[in-house]
């Protein structure tokens, strides 16, 4: 009660001192009156007046006490007396002066006057009216009216100060908005996080470029798409793909990529998830998404990139690609060293060559043979079947592969002499075939085979002898005598040919040429008196001659010794046959003069019947001998030996591109470019010397063991063509001939560029551009197919080069092979730093 009384007294004292005019301005007076009214004896009277005010002495005492208390309180609150302090009258005076200044538009001066006079609310009002909200904010801040201060700072555009004050007061959303306006996006993000608004926090972090924090905030807000995009930006900024190959960084990058993809998945955007995984080279997870999108072909590709063959195969099976699935599994098992399963899968995929190789490695030779047979590799198939004793099947495969001697041997083991003889004939072993036919009692077939033996063959004497014997047995005496004479030749009678002379004598005897028979019998007896029944026959013929007298021999039935080629050994010693073709037979031979191994080509007999062709042949051979280039087979010599015309060339240790194609089907991209570049270099060199090949093809190009392409038979095609035009020599289908060559028009070096295009097309696809129907017509009229239809993996620049080479009009082709080399270089097809030699 005493406290309340003192307070009331103090309030009353202030009230009385201020006078009645201040009562409306102070709520304290009213409060004081209430306090006084609540005290005993001091309540209001019936008229509502305060009794205390009715006693002057008491009122005066309370007023004095109240003033004293107010003074104490004021000094305590303000830290002691203050200079310039104004009393209530001064405050009113200051207020009036400020109002007067405001009326004169000196609002800022009015504000400053109120601030000096401690009229803070009025000062704030005047500062706002003067357009100085910042000053007003400072006053409110000094008053600890912080929210008002923050609003005034924001109004003044000082958002950072506003944000700071609002944050201190726990107004985090408003603080975030202010910080965002001030450009302090990271602080704004922190404020939003304090306020529990993670989505807006993420947006602020993202705007500030703090994408990791943005991703975390978005994740907390379950804004999955925004979180994923923020992580993608982190990957772009912090893990550039062109950076150093750092294992730790790569692992971190992969982790972020997978996390971003997972967030995209949670957002329901599988396409975006797959895209980021592909950019991050996370092929396995990208493949899983492709499966969910039912993109099975794409999934298979991605699983293959991830080296997950089994999953790739599963994806392929989903779209019915059973063979492709088996191929993938086969390659996977082979890489894992699981050869047995790999072989089964590759066989199911139709990859018979690879399957055959694996079965061969596993020593399952019968299955290897079946696979090689399906692939069309007759030689390897035959070898496998030989190993398991299937000689008939081996023979058939050797035959299909053109290995007729090997096929003949297999038929011999199989006990089929007729087939053995047939294959020997096809192998050029006519004499051996004739022997077998004769031994089997098939003399008609024997005669056909033996008559195929060339006079230049080393088997000719023996073949003639056997024919003579057959004709003798059939009573064809004149034919028998002719063949036996050929068998004897110019050889002197001796012990090694006594039987031939004996047969000849008996035929003369049977033909009635008794004098010749007697002469031969006598000469035989002179060397071997006991040979066969010569003495009896001689006596019988002499007696018969005495009885009937000399006989006139049938015209032409006498002994005729046909002259043969000189037996003098030639310069070239044949070592073995290398191959046969339209231009003759090629042998491996030794040059006995220079003691070196050469390729010795014997030209067809039709050359002998065409003197002009022989002349041209020697001329072309001379021109070809001038070509000295690493990619051209060098010509050493040309001429005649033993009645046959030949050309001696460099012996190349390798095989033809045609044979390589037969085994491999297509040439790899790098190998194809290497072959093309070298062939272009060779042709450019020859063309610059005005020499046109006319027959560029895979069979005329060798590939050496040291990886060099070498073109053969420069100039010979023209000579052989002349011979064919005048004989019945059969030529092959013109698969490689240019349109102008097909039409018989004048040609130049661009015909070789067309044939080169056909050759490279075949190397790239494993097939010729035109191989069915009227091939010459197609070369002249039908546009060539795009090689990428057969080999989609073929580089587009290389396909364009091939198609330009195959233009019908020579003017639309490359005008030189050096242009092709330049095109290869500009297209970065493996020749950027290589310069064609020559």
**Major sheet, described briefly?**
5 strands, antiparallel
Q: What general outline do the C-alpha atoms trace?
A: elongated
Count of alpha and pi helical runs:
44
Helix content: 55-70%
Low-pLDDT residue intervals, each spanning 5 or more residues = 1-7, 14-32, 34-60, 72-86, 550-568, 723-733, 831-838
- Mean pLDDT comes to 82
For the termini, the CA-CA separation is 127 Å
> For the largest beta sheet, what order do the strands appear in spatially?
1-2-3-5-4
Structural class: mainly alpha
Strand content: 5-15%
The tally of beta strands, per DSSP, is 8
Provide the gyration radius in Å: 58 Å
What does this structure look like?
There is one protein chain. This protein has 838 residues and is mostly helical. It has 44 helices and eight strands. A hairpin with a 2-residue loop joins strand 4 and strand 5. Mean pLDDT is 82; it is low at 1-7, 14-32, 34-60, 72-86, 550-568, 723-733 and 831-838.
Keywords:
about 850 residues, mainly alpha, five-stranded antiparallel sheet, disordered N terminus, disordered C terminus
Short description:
The chain is built from 44 helices and 8 strands.
What's the structural blueprint in terms of helices and strands?
Elements (H helix, E strand, L loop, with lengths): L1 H17 L8 H12 L12 H4 L1 H23 L9 H16 L3 H10 L3 H10 L3 H10 L3 H10 L3 H10 L3 H10 L3 H10 L3 H11 L2 H10 L3 H15 L8 H20 L3 H10 L3 H10 L3 H10 L3 H10 L3 H14 L3 H10 L3 H10 L3 H11 L2 H10 L3 H10 L3 H10 L3 H10 L3 H10 L3 H8 L9 H14 L3 H12 L9 H13 L3 H14 L6 H15 L23 E10 L2 E8 L4 E7 L8 H15 L9 E7 L2 E7 L3 E3 H8 L4 H20 L12 E4 L4 E3 L4 H11 L12 H4 L7 H16 L9 H7 L14 H10 L11 H10 L12
Antiparallel strand pairs: 1-2, 2-3, 3-5, 4-5, 6-7, 7-8
Helix pairs in contact: 1-2, 1-4, 5-6, 6-7, 7-8, 8-9, 9-10, 10-11, 11-12, 12-13, 13-14, 14-15, 15-16, 16-17, 17-18, 18-19, 19-20, 20-21, 21-22, 22-23, 23-24, 24-25, 25-26, 26-27, 27-28, 28-29, 29-30, 29-31, 30-31, 31-32, 31-33, 32-33, 33-34, 34-35, 36-39, 38-41, 38-44, 41-43
């Amino acid at each position: 009660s005493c406290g309340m009384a003192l307070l009331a007294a103090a309030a009353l004292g202030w009230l009385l001192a201020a006078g009645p005019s201040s009562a409306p301005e102070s709520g304290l007076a009213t409060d004081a009156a209430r306090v006084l009214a609540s005290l005993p004896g001091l309540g209001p009277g019936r008229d509502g007046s305060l009794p205390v005010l009715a006693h002057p002495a008491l009122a005066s005492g309370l007023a004095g006490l109240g003033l004293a208390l107010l003074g104490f309180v004021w000094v305590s609150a303000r830290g002691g007396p203050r200079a310039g302090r104004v009393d209530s009258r001064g405050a009113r005076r200051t207020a009036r002066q400020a109002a007067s200044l405001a009326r004169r538009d000196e609002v800022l001066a009015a504000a400053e006057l109120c601030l000096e006079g401690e009229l803070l609310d009025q000062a704030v009002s005047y500062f706002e009216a003067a357009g100085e909200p910042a000053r007003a904010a400072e006053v409110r801040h000094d008053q600890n009216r912080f929210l008002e201060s923050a609003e005034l700072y924001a109004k003044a555009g000082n958002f950072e100060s506003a944000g700071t004050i609002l944050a201190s007061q726990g107004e985090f959303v408003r603080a975030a908005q202010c910080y965002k306006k001030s450009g302090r996006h990271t602080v704004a993000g922190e404020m939003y996080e304090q306020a529990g608004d993670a989505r807006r926090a993420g947006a602020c972090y993202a705007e500030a470029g703090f994408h990791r924090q943005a991703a975390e905030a978005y994740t907390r807000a379950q804004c999955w798409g925004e979180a994923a995009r923020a992580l993608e930006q982190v990957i772009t900024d912090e893990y550039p793909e062109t950076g150093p190959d750092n294992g730790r960084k790569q692992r971190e990058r992969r982790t972020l990529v997978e996390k971003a993809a997972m967030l995209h998945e949670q957002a329901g955007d599988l396409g975006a998830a797959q895209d980021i995984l592909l950019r991050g080279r996370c092929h396995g997870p990208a493949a899983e998404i492709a499966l969910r999108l039912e993109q099975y072909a794409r999934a298979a590709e991605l699983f293959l990139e991830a080296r997950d063959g089994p999953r790739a195969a599963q994806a392929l099976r989903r779209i019915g690609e059973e063979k492709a699935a088996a191929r993938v599994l086969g390659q996977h098992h082979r890489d894992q060293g699981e050869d047995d399963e790999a072989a089964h899968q590759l066989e199911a995929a139709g990859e018979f060559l690879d399957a055959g190789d694996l079965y061969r490695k596993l020593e399952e030779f019968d299955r290897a043979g079946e696979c090689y047979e399906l692939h069309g590799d007759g030689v390897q198939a035959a070898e496998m079947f030989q190993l398991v004793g299937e000689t008939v099947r081996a023979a058939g495969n050797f035959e299909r592969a053109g290995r007729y001697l090997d096929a003949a041997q297999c038929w011999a083991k199989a006990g089929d002499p007729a087939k053995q003889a047939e294959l020997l004939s096809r192998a050029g072993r006519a004499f051996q075939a004739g022997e077998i036919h004769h031994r089997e009692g098939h003399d008609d077939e024997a005669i056909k085979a033996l008559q195929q033996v060339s006079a230049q063959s080393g088997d000719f004497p023996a073949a003639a002898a056997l024919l003579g014997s057959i004709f003798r047995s059939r009573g064809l005496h004149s034919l028998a005598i002719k063949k036996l004479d050929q068998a004897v030749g110019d050889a002197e009678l001796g012990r090694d040919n006594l039987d031939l002379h004996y047969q000849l004598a008996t035929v003369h005897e049977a033909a009635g040429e008794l004098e010749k028979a007697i002469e031969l019998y006598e000469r035989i007896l002179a060397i071997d008196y006991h040979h066969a029944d010569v003495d009896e026959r001689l006596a019988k013929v002499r007696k018969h001659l005495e009885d009937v007298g000399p006989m006139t021999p049938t015209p032409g039935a006498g002994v005729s010794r046909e002259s043969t080629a000189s037996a003098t050994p030639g310069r070239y010693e044949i070592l073995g046959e290398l191959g046969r073709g339209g231009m003759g037979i090629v042998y491996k031979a030794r040059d006995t003069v220079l003691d070196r191994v050469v390729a010795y080509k014997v030209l067809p007999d039709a050359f002998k019947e065409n003197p002009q062709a022989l002349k041209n042949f020697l001329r072309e051979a001379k021109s070809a001998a001038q070509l000295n280039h690493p990619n051209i087979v060098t010509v050493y010599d040309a001429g005649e030996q033993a009645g046959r015309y030949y050309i001696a060339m460099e012996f190349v240790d390798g095989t033809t591109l045609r044979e390589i194609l037969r085994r491999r089907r297509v040439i790899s991209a790098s190998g194809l470019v290497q072959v093309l570049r070298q062939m272009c270099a060779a042709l450019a060199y020859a063309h610059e010397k005005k020499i046109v090949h006319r027959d560029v093809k895979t069979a005329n190009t060798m590939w050496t063991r040291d990886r060099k392409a070498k073109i053969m038979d420069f100039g010979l095609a023209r000579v052989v063509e002349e011979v064919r035009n005048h004989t019945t020599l059969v030529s092959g289908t013109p698969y490689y001939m240019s349109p102008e060559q097909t039409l018989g028009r004048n040609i130049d070096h661009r015909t070789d560029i067309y044939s080169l295009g056909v050759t490279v097309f075949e190397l790239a696809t494993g097939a010729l551009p035109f191989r069915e129907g009227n091939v010459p017509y197609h070369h002249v009229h039908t546009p060539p197919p795009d090689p990428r239809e057969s080999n989609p993996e073929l580089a587009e620049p290389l396909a364009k080069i091939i198609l330009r080479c195959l233009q019908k009009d020579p003017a639309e082709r490359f005008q030189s092979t050096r242009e092709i080399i330049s095109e290869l270089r500009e297209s970065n097809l493996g020749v950027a730093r290589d310069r064609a030699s020559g």
